[in-house]
Write a structure and sequence with these properties.
700 residues; alpha+beta; Beta-galactosidase, Chain A, domain 5; 2 domains; 10-stranded mixed sheet; 29 strands; GtaA_N; signal; GtaA_central; Glutaminase_GtaA
Length: 700
């Protein structure tokens, strides 16, 4: 098993974490991802201008504390390495922090011994069982920095705050032993499946596990008692208090401690391996064929219990780490073709985007199945908590295209299935599969949570459905849902060239008529329907839609271009208005060749004079912007210098220290003021350059 030690040693060296001062790489983000594996395993270190791992409590993406603490003891002196110091614990020195697409690594100096804390949230889209596990790893390694051997002990605990924001909630718990693991399991005493409060699910189990090793002790009890015992004794007495009781009632805490013995300059042969995550045996309610179907995690096709899944996760840690390293290397190689800052932006975006997904199958499914649906939770938006908003899936399109088109199919099919049953009484596409995660029970037209985006939603679903078929070679969605797709294309035929007053993808923005960017998306979607018809041998439809799209794009150019021919307008009737034409990228990603080349060149020239301190303003109405749409707007340019400049300004915003929350992609381009949005999966759109590379070079 020496392979694991070599892996973690080489990881630390490659990350530059052996430096003598606190280094950050590739930049200092507003919040640092720790355990980010699902909508409810989403724990971050609020960072701002720079917060050491021991400088603050970890937080759920909303800002609620998810208490997770660690200490170490070196030759009798206890140091607080994660979360604020407890009792008389000494404050150590952080040497570095680095994040990648899958991990975050801290190096902390505790006197004569350096500790490396590696938080790994694996991304393996080639293995859907691994991909669907809602758990993350913490690896702790140690090595002396003075060439001598030292006595080392390690401690970590969590509290029941991992379950709920309301600390009056009562919790129960247990401790289990598997063949290779010890684990604490914590639940709300009152289980309420499919219900959320304060963005937290009121159902499921938090697992906190450790891979077995010699000299392991564990305890459950009040937080102060456990931490004080480790500070004073360096070990834990195996006392397991029983519940239930309220989260705030003496703060029930779940701890492990390991005596590592003598540690020298060669370090540990094996890291101390922890696993953590919030898991549920029922993920989503889905409305299909007039019935509410309860869907379970994909990993249940192999493991029938959450405990068995956690046991596998822990014993699979070496394979998961190797797979994650390959993912990091591949993504970095593709992103660095654009720039180093772009690679950094993509890496952080990957962590946030995958923390919003859950992959599901029907109850009782075993082995391979085609009935796989992916559900995405929208966070912090005008439509907060919506499930599979098609505008959100459209924003995430570059990520799905790049990592695995099967995920794109799994994400759009819930909307296609529901719409095909004619439950939604409109001739345009519904905006989402449901307004309240995790309930994909459909959308009632006209209710308070129905944000109709008729052109936006209809165009999004047509574009995404064609893209899946092009990338995967799987035309099953095209044939199964052809009638529905044709219905939406027919709607666009009559409405897209001059859109009426309506919302587009930004539900927080004003409803406006005659939006140029929205209109061109609809026209591209009509062209996409022409390709769908061609691929399914609907020859007459193919000719009709293709001809229509070519005619519309000519008219659109005349309507959308300013009179001086220098830029596209935001709305047709305001020649002084402008916008970033991010929807033009869809033409490139679908390889339609619909939009004239001079349109792209004109926009490029216009952008050169419009770069603000933190990027490109979305349009002429206000000073705000959305970073993923900025990336879309420059990805199709030919001026690499301008592309890098805009990227550098976006990264300057994310590394400015202005915010302290997971990536807030909606902000003021001049000042960086954050508009309350955070942790949105839309940042997956930052992968637009990579998706375009894939289209152009057949990488996927």
């Amino acid at each position: 098993m020496r392979v694991a030690a070599l892996f973690w040693s080489s990881f630390a060296l490659a990350s530059g974490v052996l430096a003598a001062s606190w280094k950050t790489g590739p930049f200092n983000p507003p919040a640092i991802p720790l355990a980010v594996s699902s909508p409810y395993t989403s724990t971050w270190l609020n960072n701002g201008n720079g917060t050491a791992l021991f400088g603050d409590w970890p937080h759920f993406w909303t800002g609620a504390v998810t208490a997770w603490l660690s200490m170490v003891n070196v030759d009798g002196t206890t140091y607080a390495t994660m979360a604020p110091p407890s009792g008389s614990a000494t404050v150590p020195k952080q040497l570095s922090m680095k994040f990648t697409s899958t991990s975050t690594v801290f190096v902390i100096r505790c006197g004569p011994v350096d500790f490396t804390y590696t938080f790994l949230s694996p991304i393996d889209t080639d293995d859907l069982v691994r991909f669907s596990l809602p758990f993350s790893y913490l690896y702790i390694t140690a090595a002396s920095n003075d060439g001598k051997a030292h006595k080392v002990k390690v401690y970590s605990d969590i509290t029941a705050e991992w379950l709920a924001t309301d600390n009056n909630e009562k919790v129960s718990w247990s401790t289990s032993e598997g063949p290779h693991t010890m684990g604490h399991e914590i639940q709300l005493a009152d289980q309420r499946p499919f219900q959320e409060t304060s963005q937290r699910i009121l159902h499921g189990t938090v697992f906190f596990s450790i891979l077995k090793r010699d000299n392991l002790t564990y305890r459950i009890g009040p937080s102060g008692d456990l931490r004080d015992e480790f500070v004073s004794r360096g070990t834990l007495t195996p006392l397991l208090e029983t519940g239930p009781r309220a989260i705030k009632d003496r703060w029930p805490t779940f701890a492990f401690a390991v005596d590592l013995g003598s540690v020298g300059a060669q370090g540990l042969a094996e890291p101390v391996v922890f696993g953590i995550g919030h898991a549920r045996d029922k993920l989503v309610q889905f409305n299909t064929k007039g019935q509410i179907q309860e869907r379970v995690p994909y990993f249940m096709t192999r493991y029938t219990s959450l405990r068995d899944a956690m046991e596998f996760f822990m014993t699979d840690h070496e394979n998961a780490a190797r797979a994650a390293a390959l993912v990091d290397a591949q993504i970095e190689a593709h992103a660095k073709k654009v720039s180093d800052n772009y690679a950094a932006l993509v890496a952080l975006s990957m962590r946030q985007a995958f923390a919003a997904m859950e992959l599901t199958v029907p109850i009782g499914t075993t082995g391979d199945t085609d009935d796989v649906l992916l559900f995405v939770r929208q966070n912090s938006a005008g439509y907060d908590g919506a499930i599979n908003g098609v505008d959100v899936l459209y924003a995430m399109w570059p990520l799905f295209s790049y990592v695995n088109p099967r995920l794109l199919k799994a994400a759009i099919e819930p909307t296609l299935r529901y719409a095909a049953e004619d439950v939604y009484p409109s001739n345009f596409c519904l905006r989402s599969a449901g307004p309240h995660y995790p309930n994909a029970t459909g959308q009632a037209a006209g209710d308070d949570m129905d944000h109709p985006m008729p052109v936006e939603a209809s165009a999004d679903i047509l574009i995404l459905t064609l893209s899946h078929a092009q990338i995967s070679g799987d035309g099953s969605l095209l044939t199964t849902y052809y009638a529905q797709l044709d219905k939406w294309a027919t709607y666009l035929q009559d409405t897209t060239l001059t859109p009426t007053k309506q919302e587009q993808g930004e539900t927080f923005a004003d409803s406006v008529a005659k939006m140029s960017n929205l209109a061109v998306k609809g026209i591209i979607a009509i062209a996409a329907m022409g390709e769908i018809a061609k691929m399914t041998n609907h020859t007459q439809d193919a000719d009709k839609y293709s001809t229509m799209a070519r005619n519309y794009i000519t008219q659109w150019k005349s309507l959308a271009m300013s009179k001086d021919g220098k830029h596209l307008t935001f709305t047709y009737d305001n020649d002084n208005s402008y916008m970033i034409g991010f929807n033009l990228l869809a033409d490139k990603l679908l390889k339609l060749g619909l939009v004239p080349d001079d349109i792209y060149a004109t926009q490029q020239s216009w952008y050169e004079a419009k770069v603000s301190p933190y990027g490109l303003k979305a349009d002429s109405r206000y000073g705000w912007t959305v970073s993923n749409w900025e990336i879309w707007a420059i990805a199709y340019m030919k001026d690499a210098t301008l592309q890098r400049t805009v990227i550098d300004h976006i990264v300057a915003y994310y590394s400015s220290g202005i915010g302290t929350v997971p990536m807030a992609n909606y902000y003021e381009a001049d000042t960086g003021k954050v508009h309350q949005f955070q942790a949105r999966p839309d940042v997956a759109g930052h992968l637009a350059f990579i998706a375009l590379q894939c289209v152009q070079s057949s990488l996927i």
